[in-house]
Amino acid sequence: MAAIAYPIPDDVTSVLADLDPFLEAEVLRRHRDHHEALSDPRHRYDAEGRYTPEVQQLIREVRTAASSAGFFNLAVPVGMGGRGMGYLAYYSAWEHIKRRCGAHNWLGTYVLSHWAFGPSRVLEQLSPQATTDVLPDLVAGRTSMSFGLSEPDAGSDAANLRTTATPDGDGWRLNGTKIWTTNVTFADWILAFAVTDPARAAARRGGISAFLVPIDAPGFRVEEIILLNGEIGGVEGRSTFTDVRVEPWQLVGPLHEGFSLAIMGVSLGRVYNAARAVGYARWALDLALDHTATRVTFGKPIAEYQGVAFPLADAAMQVHAAHLMGINAAALLDRGERAIKELSMAKCYAVQVCLDAVDRAIQTFGARGFRNELGLMEAYHTLRAINVADGTNEILNRTIFQRLAAGDRDL
Ligand SMILES: Cc1cc2nc3c(=O)[nH]c(=O)nc-3n(C[C@H](O)[C@H](O)[C@H](O)COP(=O)(O)OP(=O)(O)OC[C@H]3O[C@@H](n4cnc5c(N)ncnc54)[C@H](O)[C@@H]3O)c2cc1C
Fold first, then answer.
1. Is 166 helix (H, G, I), strand (E, B) or coil?
2. CA angle 267-76-13, nearest 5°?
3. What is the CATH number of the domain that holds 206?
């Protein structure tokens, strides 16, 4: 039964239909075949807290298979070797992947490239040398990257960067610290944002540039694998640049104009995070609804108790609204609008109500809700973190209010 009157274009619905057999063959099968390596933290991480070589290989296999099947580069511009589909396709595919895979079949994350670990329109202005030498492997999924914007003193206030790129002959020397960089613990590249014109950067008028740096560059070091949520390993890292030499071909986009690329990345991140929140919430509600039909207490299925049913109905209402907001923001972006207010609303609303929906699903399962193999707590932790990543809820509220105050009051 259709829940949405909005006509989803045929090319998007056919991508979603094609994704199902792919996810079964390349993601769910790998999770079954390598259950211990992927699901048991004692086998997933090495002694330092990095993914083991086996896990890194499985991730690479999913990326390369997804690239060959045409999913990985779905929303990557055609000129970069992608399919050039729009934001609605990107939003819908992410939501679909997360709904099908849930949080515990986490290799699903590598089916579709996102700006922080693979090709995206953020890399559209690579130099000719990087286009020849770096891009093909990224597009094929053979290599991956990370997105180094945040620093100890630059989180919400992302332009407050301290990392510098000082001219050195025809290139630059990078010095500084990056933190919270997802995937830097096993990626091949880091896209690092650095101040190239301190006066302009201080005045918030450009002066920041983006550089593609190999992880094995002399002077670059991952200092810490950041452990979150009680895990014994992780993918977020703190890293330092000490006189790291970068050549002109490593500059991405125009000199001093890198911050607009950072904003582009973060916007793609908001589409991704709105979609994955709704995807996880729909998956969690599916699990919880099935459970209400089979779990019997006091002689009746728990579905018959309003105390169980109404919180799930309420969650479904909110997730439906979040879903509509997500596809609406994506469709506006596809029309060429900036949709700053709508995208901020979609991400901010989705992460909050979907976190709540997952929490209600956990409650529906009673003690089982906390079991590792169900994955609900994993989803909960992820959604809790994306209430902060790519713009905290407070910063998104600030943006929404700024747009309203500036006269953008269409709701
Ligand atoms: C799991 C995870 C993955 C991440 N991955 C990456 C990555 O790959 N690359 C990357 O560059 N960064 C990454 N980040 C960093 C993320 O972008 C920042 O954490 C985020 O922008 C918030 O910055 P902060 O943590 O420094 O918090 P702060 O900026 O210090 O904020 C602290 C608190 O103050 C509030 N606050 C700050 N300013 C205002 C204001 N003006 N009005 C109201 N409230 C305000 C915030 O909302 C927050 O609640 C990741 C973060 C997480 C959690």
1. strand
2. 90
3. 2.40.110.10
pLDDT at residue 2 in the model: 85
Sign of CA dihedral 236, 59, 268, 24: negative
Is 345 found in the same domain as 310?
A: yes
Residue to substitute in 162, 180, 189 for testing ligand 1 pocket (most ligand atoms within 8 angstroms of CB)? 180
* Nearest Cα residue to atom 27 of ligand 1: 155
The confidence band for 208, taking pLDDT boundaries of 50, 70 and 90, is very high
Phi, psi of 224 (to 5 degrees): -150, 135
Longest dimension (CA), the chain: 80
Domain boundary among 116, 140, 164: 140
Question: Could you give the residue ranges of the DSSP H alpha helices within 295-390?
Answer: 306-334, 340-364, 376-385
Tell me: the pLDDT tens digits for 117-152? 999 999 999 999 999 999 999 999 999 999 999 999
Which residue out of 347, 388, 390, 401 has the highest number of ligand 1 atoms within 8 Å of its CB and is therefore the one to mutate? 388
Alpha carbon distance 237, 221 (integer Å): 10
Q: Where among 122, 140, 158 does a domain terminate?
A: 140
Question: Model's pTM, two decimal places?
Answer: 0.97
Give which of 136, 27, 127, 17 is closest to 76, Cα–Cα: 136
Q: Give 337's contacts (C-beta < 8 A, 6+ positions apart).
A: none
